Amino acid sequence: MAEPGKHTEEQARALLLITRSLLSVATLTFFTVMAIVMVHFMGLENIRAAWKAFRADPVPPAPVAAPAPGAPAVSYWQAPVFDTVSDEAVTYGRELIANTALYLGPKGKVAAISNGMNCQNCHLDAGTRVFGNNYSAVASTYPKFRARSGMEESIEKRVNDCFERSLNGEALAEDSREMRAIVAYIRWLGTEVPKGEVPPGSGLVELGFLDRAADPEKGKSLYDQKCMSCHGKEGAGQYNAEGTAYAFPPLWGEHSYNTGAGLFRLSRFASYIKANMPLGATHLNPQLSDEEAWDIAAFVNSQDRPGKDIRKDWPDISKKPADHPFGPFSDGFSEKQHRLGPFGPIRQAAQEKKQSRKQGG
Ligand code: HEC
Ligand code: HEC
After folding, report:
1. 20 to 30 A Cα–Cα from 283, which one of 46, 78, 348, 359?
2. How much distance in Å is there from the Cα of 279 to the middle of ligand 2?
3. 64, pLDDT greater than 90
């Protein structure tokens, strides 16, 4: 007599075998069909290319500045909400920053004291944009000592610096309605920033130095490709249809910033465009490599523009930044190297000097 237990065991084993073979056949059929479908829709060549690309670059480059999953995202400064502000000084101040030319340009309603540019051309979105040269740290850090003037500067003094240099114009009287409004607006922007603090996203991005001199020749061909369509072949910009302000501000020539302006320093220009130009670029979505930004800066700042007597700047010449383009210098590097770089050796020499002074050398 067959034992009933053994019988079922054999049956079960057979069933398992059949199931297994059926499963392998199904898997095989699945992959064969998939392969046929892939070849049909993609073509053998494309599949081969895709495989090659996968092998050559197994790790796709991470998108710029995207925080790693789980990592705390940097929380950049945000301007306070403007819509509900009723303080007339603050609203007039913002208006003056956004539409400077209308009030203070060559045909200004209030006075003709500047070159037709708006503060906002360089301090984007009325000085509120992250890494768009915003004013987030002004209220919290001024008055402060600045080595350029060698003295403690008020916000008014700093604003007038931009009038006299970036807008190649004249200073506003410190007690004028316009100056009081501009300062009120800048202070209001910084309301929530604790004294002494510089919030993330303030001012401009910092770029690393190139290990070569910036190249105006390369910069010119990049300018022609990426900037000329808006800023013009001669860098003169374009007025809006009403002729009241620039639609595209000038980058050089008689209506541009002068040689004493912040943007005339290569690093300031390169940092500004890296995160903001061509129009539409942001710090999270830059459209220029660092090299391109430096080379374009070298080209633009090699063109003609208004001069400014800055002999009184930097009373302590050893405090001049590596890219301050005018001598005399306290180091042995040429004016040309201070203008175009390479800046690394200049900064290093300055640091070594400081170190040896500290050690009593
Ligand atoms: C051509 C470009 C340009 C224009 C136009 C311009 N600025 Fe500036 N401004 C700069 C640059 C560059 C800096 C220095 C940024 C840096 O070094 O990080 C600066 C700095 C400043 C600062 C100090 C910011 C800080 O955090 O220390 C203030 C305040 C300021 N500008 C106000 C103004 C006002 C007000 C106007 C209009 C009357 C104006 N600027 C127009 C380029 C410009
Ligand atoms: C699509 C048009 C467009 C392109 C392309 C463009 N810009 Fe601009 N640029 C602007 C506008 C508009 C402003 C003023 C922004 C504002 O007022 O909000 C500006 C402002 C500037 C400023 C500060 C103001 C000044 O005139 O000094 C600089 C510097 C600048 N651009 C450089 C460049 C460079 C370099 C390139 C090429 C890499 C470039 N831009 C490409 C439209 C453009």
Report:
1. 348
2. 6
3. no
Provide mean pLDDT across the span 6-21. Answer: 72
Local confidence band at 50 (pLDDT 50, 70, 90 cut-offs): low
Residue having the nearest C-alpha atom to atom 4 of ligand 2: 278
Determine the residue of 110, 133, 204 to mutate for testing ligand 1's pocket, defined as the one with the most ligand atoms within 8 A of the Cβ atom.
133
Pocket test for ligand 1, best of 123, 155, 163, 178 (most atoms within 8 A of CB): 123
Token pair belonging to 222? 């990049």
- Measure the CA–CA gap between 246 and 232, rounded to whole angstroms: 12
Contact 135, 144 (CB under 8 A): no
Q: Rounded to whole angstroms, how far apart are CA atoms 337 and 140?
A: 35
Which domains are delineated in the chain?
88-189 (1.10.760.10), 216-358 (1.10.760.10)
- Cα(213) to ligand 1 centroid in Å equals 26
Count of residues for the chain?
361
Residue 116 tokens, joined: 């037709």
The tokens for 134 are 């915003």
Q: Taking 70 as the threshold, does the pLDDT of residue 69 lie above it?
A: no
Closest ligand to C-alpha of residue 116 is 1
* Token pair for 14: 């057979």
**Among protein residues, the one whose CA lies closest to atom 5 of ligand 1:** 119
- Tens-digit pLDDT profile for residues 177-196: 999 999 999 999 999 999 99
Place of tokens 């069909």: 33
